[in-house]
Amino acid sequence: MARINQRHKPGFVPLTLFFILFLIFLYGPTATIAILSFQGPDGGLTFPMNGISLHWFRQLFEPQQVGDFGGSLLRSVMLGFAVMICTAAFSLLAGLAYRRKFKGSDALFYLSLVSLILPSILISLGIGIMFDRLGLAPTWYTSAFGAHLTWTLPFGLLIMFAVFNRFNRSYEAAAMDMGATAWQTFRFVVFPLVLPSLIGVSLFGFTLSYDEFARTLMTSGTFNTLPLEIYGMTTNVTTPVLYALGTVTTLFSFSLIFCAMFAVHLLKKHRAKTVN
Amino acid sequence: MRFFSQYISYFQAAPLALIILLFLLFPVLTILVVSFWDYDSYRLIPDFITENYEFLLTSPVTYSAYLKTLFYAIATLVITLLIGFTVAYYIAFYIRNSFVQSLLFIACTVPFLTSNIIRMISWIPLLGRNGLVNSALLETHIIDEPIEWLLYSDFSVILAFVHLYTLFVVVPVFNSMMRIDRNLVEAAIDSGASAMQTITHVILPLCKSGLAIGSIFVMTLVMGDFITVTMMSGGLSASVGVLIRNEISLLQYPAAAANAIVLLGTVLIMLSVMFRFINIKKEL
Description:
The complex is a heterodimer.
Chain A: H1 12-36, H2 55-60, H3 69-97, H4 105-117, H5 120-133, H6 143-165, H7 169-177, H8 182-211, H9 214-217, H10 226-236, H11 241-275
Chain B: H1 2-34, E1 38-39, E2 44-45, H2 51-58, H3 60-94, H4 98-109, H5 116-121, H6 124-127, H7 132-139, H8 154-165, H9 167-178, H10 182-190, H11 195-206, H12 208-223, H13 227-232, H14 240-249, H15 253-274, H16 280-283
Antiparallel strand pairs in B: 1-2
Helix pairs in contact in B: 3-8, 3-9, 3-12, 9-12, 10-11, 12-15, 14-15
């Protein structure tokens, strides 16, 4: 009878402790550098804190200190945005395509999986050499853009697969029966239903591109994206300005995640209201 | 209209197919071709030679790099599977409130959407010679001298891998666990199975494909990695990815290409074994 009272299910206490330790393991290091980024002007890379200041955050915006922070941030945001749009659009389209059987669908599906799990250095090297052989200069908005899509699109595709597998086709059938055209059915029935998942796909598209390092390495050309810039800094910057940068980009990612979740929440609330 | 609706799937799948063709198939073919080319210090020379492979396969450096990489991959896999399974098991079977359940699940996945490089850097103030761990241990007189192997060692490399990739196990395993019919678990308990027996005889077999998907991600991510190994070993350790990266920076593209093709072959062999355990389409 013990199992009826779930609170006292055997193993609850040790497993809860284990889970809490896991969360500390996940977030602890990031929290540490967040604290250290508020070091006083004389503070170093490790504890103790030598006063508290915003000194290193100010340093971040002085160009001579950290290479090209502003420029690389701008490039990463624009690239992430473009990758996000294409990931959302292309994976939605592909998801729709896979609701029917078509020739080559299995091959394309397995190639997408390969794309997801192929070591990123292979993609980076391959695209780098291919552009070199074609006589094209690699840039962040061509070769790096393509390289990022090989990683974000399969993720988007898998999410859309999961969505359409659970999709109730009778809504569509009802719309069609009432005389809606194919476009109207998509626009007013299918699209609103998949929109929350599409926001999730977009979030993945943006953040995966924004943080991508290995695939950008050989494909970004002359100008660095933010992860490349940060990597460059790890070898030659020995002040907490590095931590300040880490804290700023992590906060940026967190706020994006929060916005996306909030948008999904609003959509669901809105839908619940209109249905009732 | 009839023509259009007949072929609409092809139009819808076209952008994906185009990206795969241009940025996956062509680049991999390019690597394959270039791996047979000759080169000198300035340029690539189109040719058909097998020296790149001969050099690679006879060099002891290659073998030690593969051994090192396999060591990292297996150690990381074992640890991430243990931690990932336990965490997923806790969220799936011990948390009854579905809101709390999704909250905890999201807490485990959020770090995936932040920068890996920053997450690696953030170990430095903890593990360094004057880092938090060493100071705490010195302060409490557990040790008399700072531990040197905390940072820039195999330990820190594996620690970083586990830190970065455990959620690749948590997500698919949690997904598998949520599909397990709870009656099966109850039936096992009712028939007198202990908690451990329920795990080994009921839950574990039903999570097989989730564990396989997680293993595929962890193995391929570790096998192809160069940045974690470079940063966390302080440049002291050479995995296969690091070798390729070094050849790239020396502009020895054909050598790097041959190395990449061998890596690709190794990864594909491992995958073909792991894919036997799963039907990926059923998992979505």
